[in-house]
């Protein structure tokens, strides 16, 4: 099975730039192919599905080790690693990474829950799609995440407008009430845009005035390198 072909966009070492593990160095394995179509996606180069796999599983594992050195953390992202075309390869990869003692995070687009993979990984970053993305997340999936994967997930929402914040707050209250949930708001920092200081402060203020249901965490890698640079 180690010669199975996976659709890989890139494999690189970088420091986590967003979410609750911001600042943690790790290796990113970015899968190629996504059919979700978020309007504000900053990785549209990952959308097209290759006609066949680009790297064997053995080649992926070797490159992960080459990039990692002494690091143990690996984040599987995309594209959409949980698209049905990618999930067989992702499952094989996760199994091998766990055998080698790696700590594995999966970046989930918020469109599906896959127990075969979610049960194996150490952490799940689960998206909530806001109105500005043009995509919707079923609230029932958020409740299922909290019930089945407590202490090993976060919900992330990219907030571009006050309407995004209000929609996110509405769902949070409907699903979880006033209880704590590991839910991160990421102020949008779009391609070609200068640092959105006013947007960032507006989201911080909205969160405080609404009762502080969320953590507001910006994208550190974009502060350091700008919004367009890849593999950082």
Please explain how this structure is put together.
By secondary structure, the protein is α/β, with parallel strands linked by helices. It has one domain: Aldolase class I (TIM Barrel). It contains seven helices and ten strands. Strands 2-3-5-6-7-8-9-10 form an eight-stranded mixed sheet. Strands 1-4 form a two-stranded antiparallel sheet. Strand 8, helix 5 and strand 9 form a beta-alpha-beta unit. The model has no long low-confidence stretch (mean pLDDT 95).
Write out key terms for the chains shown.
10 strands, alpha/beta, 232 residues, 21% strand, TIM Barrel
Would you list the SSEs in sequence order as H and E?
Answer: EEEEHEHEHEHEHEHEH
Estimated structural class:
alpha/beta
The rounded Rg comes to: 17 Å
- Strand order across the largest sheet: 2-3-5-6-7-8-9-10
Number of strands: 10
Mean pLDDT over all positions: 95
Low-confidence spans: pLDDT under 50, at least 5 residues? Answer: none
Shape: globular
Main sheet characteristics: 8 strands, mixed
| CATH homologous superfamily designation | Aldolase class I
The multimeric state of the shown protein is single chain
Number of domains: 1
Q: With helices defined by DSSP (H or I, 4 residues minimum), what is the helix count?
A: 7
Q: For the record, give the distance between the C-alpha atoms at the N and C termini, rounded to a whole number.
A: 31 Å
């Amino acid at each position: 099975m180690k010669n199975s072909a996976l659709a890989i966009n890139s494999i690189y070492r970088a420091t986590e730039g967003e979410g609750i593990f911001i600042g943690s160095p790790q290796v990113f394995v970015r899968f190629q192919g996504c059919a979700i179509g978020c309007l504000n996606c900053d990785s549209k180069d990952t959308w097209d599905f290759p006609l066949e796999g680009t790297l064997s599983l053995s080649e992926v594992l070797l490159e992960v080790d080459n990039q990692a050195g002494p690091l143990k953390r690996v984040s599987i992202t995309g594209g959409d690693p949980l698209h049905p075309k990618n999930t067989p390869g992702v499952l094989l990869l996760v199994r091998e990474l766990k055998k080698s003692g790696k700590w594995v995070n999966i970046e989930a687009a918020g469109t599906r829950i896959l127990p075969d993979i979610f049960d194996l990984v150490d952490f799940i970053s689960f998206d909530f799609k806001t109105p500005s993305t043009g995509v919707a997340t079923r609230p029932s999936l958020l409740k299922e995440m909290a019930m089945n994967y407590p202490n090993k997930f976060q919900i992330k929402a990219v907030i571009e407008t006050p309407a995004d914040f209000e929609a996110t707050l509405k769902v949070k209250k409907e699903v979880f009430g006033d209880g704590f949930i590991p839910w991160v708001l990421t102020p949008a920092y779009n391609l070609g845009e200068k640092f959105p200081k006013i947007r960032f402060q507006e989201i911080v203020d909205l969160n405080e005035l609404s009762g502080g249901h969320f953590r507001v965490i910006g994208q550190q890698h974009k502060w350091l390198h700008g919004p367009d640079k890849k593999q950082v």
